[in-house]
């Protein structure tokens, strides 16, 4: 039995949906430099200087699905689902185009005024991510998130939007999948790995600065509106040991510790003893002050948000073992699991395990703000798409979530990811479709951009209406 105040939602983010990449006074973000997968997107992600000096034929984020202009029809369509909330992000570079501007960009704020007002027309509450891989590109010249000055810039931005939307937004998330700064530091921390003598230290320095800025944002947010709920977020997924060999089990344990390392600080107020030892062993100096450590201790998160797509498989000896894809990083292939075309493995039981582990570890309410299944698909001649495979994925995962709640896990709400088809963050493809709504655009941005409901749209509508009873 679901609690009556459980929240059901839809989700997207600015860089993957808005487009309008230079409209309304917006500055550039790293996402605006990345080409499609066919032009070397991953090479660009791991070589920022090359990306900044290369002219590509197509940039997926420049127009994305044109949510910047089409948001009224999209919000109206999503409202048909009966959802309580829309998880989206405010693009920092729309508000402070260079990151360190003296004054915010009023045109950028006006866009989010209109967007949130449109949501309110339909009784939809925004759940806002403050940084969803959209740190203003200009800050790369200051060292990105390695530079402690960026803490002040981020806090200024947060205070600006907190004050602007103090009566509009209740739920805030400081950083999307904060562990991404360790997995892909260019995307998560605006760090060019090719320019770092000690990339390990650079990653953790950037992460530490994000932790401090998130804690300060939490402090200021609660001062502005004590009713704010300000959470952290992890790209989650249980790490399984490849075998019961103790070496594999230890490898999986270490993978979990590293995955949890940053959210440990956000939710518990301190680095774990394991990570402090890790820093010493690897001679990592975070340049952390006593004042910063006190800030981390005092201003912890109100909830833990998470994305979940699949679990991971870990071995102490990766030789001759088949690999597959996954969120944040690849993994070893699990012979007991099926996978989609990109190798992301389907594991609803792993979802239940992950939810239980996170709740046991943090004892804070969880908020599932991303869950989804990507497929290459095309509608029929009537613009209809029978995506029974997606329904099966969601049915099994929502059931696993309900099982976790029966286990005692406190969950605020749930949303599918990319509820309307959006550009993939990892590949830049439109054809990597997650949505309940089909968008008529291809991997080169060609098409009408028109929206069409898939079969899963009406299925999810009934799930929301019945509060999860009818799966």
From TrEMBL:
Q: So what family is this one in? A: Belongs to the glycosyl hydrolase 1 family.
Gene3D superfamilies per the record? Answer: Glycosidases (3.20.20.80)
GO (cellular component) term, any one: cytosol
Source species, domain of life: Bacteria
Biological process terms from the Gene Ontology for this record are: carbohydrate catabolic process
Catalytic residues, per the record, are 370
InterPro entries found in the cross-reference section: GH, Glyco_hydro_1, Glyco_hydro_1_AS
Listed A to Z, the keywords are: Glycosidase, Hydrolase
Protein name, as recorded: Amygdalase
Gene Ontology terms, MF aspect: beta-glucosidase activity
């Amino acid at each position: 039995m679901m609690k009556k105040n459980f929240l059901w939602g839809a989700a997207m983010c600015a860089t993957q949906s808005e487009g309008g990449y230079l409209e309304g006074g917006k500055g550039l973000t790293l996402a605006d430099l990345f080409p499609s997968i066919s032009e070397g997107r991953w090479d660009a992600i791991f070589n920022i200087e090359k990306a900044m000096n290369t002219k590509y034929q197509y940039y997926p984020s420049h127009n994305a699905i044109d949510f910047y202009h089409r948001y009224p029809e999209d919000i109206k369509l999503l409202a048909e689902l009966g959802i309580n909330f829309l998880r989206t992000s405010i693009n920092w570079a729309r508000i402070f185009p260079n990151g360190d501007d003296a004054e915010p960009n009023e045109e950028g704020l006006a866009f989010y005024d209109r967007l949130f007002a449109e949501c309110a027309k339909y009784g939809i509450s925004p759940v806002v991510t403050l940084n969803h891989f959209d740190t203003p590109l200009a800050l790369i010249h200051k060292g990105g998130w390695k530079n402690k000055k960026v803490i002040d810039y981020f806090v200024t931005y947060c205070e600006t939007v907190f004050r602007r939307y103090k009566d509009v937004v209740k739920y805030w998330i400081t950083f999307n999948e904060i562990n991404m700064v360790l997995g892909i530091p260019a995307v998560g921390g605006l760090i060019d790995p090719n320019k770092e003598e000690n990339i390990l230290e650079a990653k953790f320095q950037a992460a530490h600065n994000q932790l401090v800025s998130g804690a300060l944002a939490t402090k200021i947010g609660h001062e502005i509106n004590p009713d704010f709920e300000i959470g952290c977020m992890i790209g989650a997924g249980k790490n399984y040991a490849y075998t019961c060999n103790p070496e594999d089990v230890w490898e999986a344990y270490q993978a979990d510790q590293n995955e949890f390392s940053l959210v440990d600080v956000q939710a518990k107020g301190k680095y774990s003893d394991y990570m402090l030892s890790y820093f010493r062993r690897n001679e990592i100096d975070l340049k952390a002050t006593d004042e910063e450590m006190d800030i981390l201790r005092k201003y912890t998160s109100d909830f833990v948000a998470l994305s979940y797509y699949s679990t991971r498989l870990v071995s102490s000896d990766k030789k001759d073992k088949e690999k597959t894809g996954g969120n944040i990083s690849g993994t070893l292939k699990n012979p007991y699991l099926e996978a989609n075309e990109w190798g992301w493995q389907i594991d609803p039981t792993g979802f239940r395990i992950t939810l239980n582990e996170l709740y046991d570890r943090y004892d804070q309410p969880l908020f599932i703000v991303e869950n989804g299944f990507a497929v290459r698909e095309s509608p029929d001649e009537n613009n209809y798409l029978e995506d029974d495979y997606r329904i099966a994925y969601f049915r099994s995962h929502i059931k696993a979530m309900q099982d976790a709640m029966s286990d005692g896990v406190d969950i605020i709400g749930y949303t599918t990811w990319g509820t309307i088809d959006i550009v993939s963050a990892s590949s830049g493809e439109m054809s990597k479709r997650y949505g309940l709504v089909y968008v008529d655009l291809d991997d080169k941005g060609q098409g009408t951009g028109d929206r069409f409901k898939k079969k899963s749209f009406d299925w999810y509508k009934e799930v929301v209406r019945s509060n999860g009873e009818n799966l």
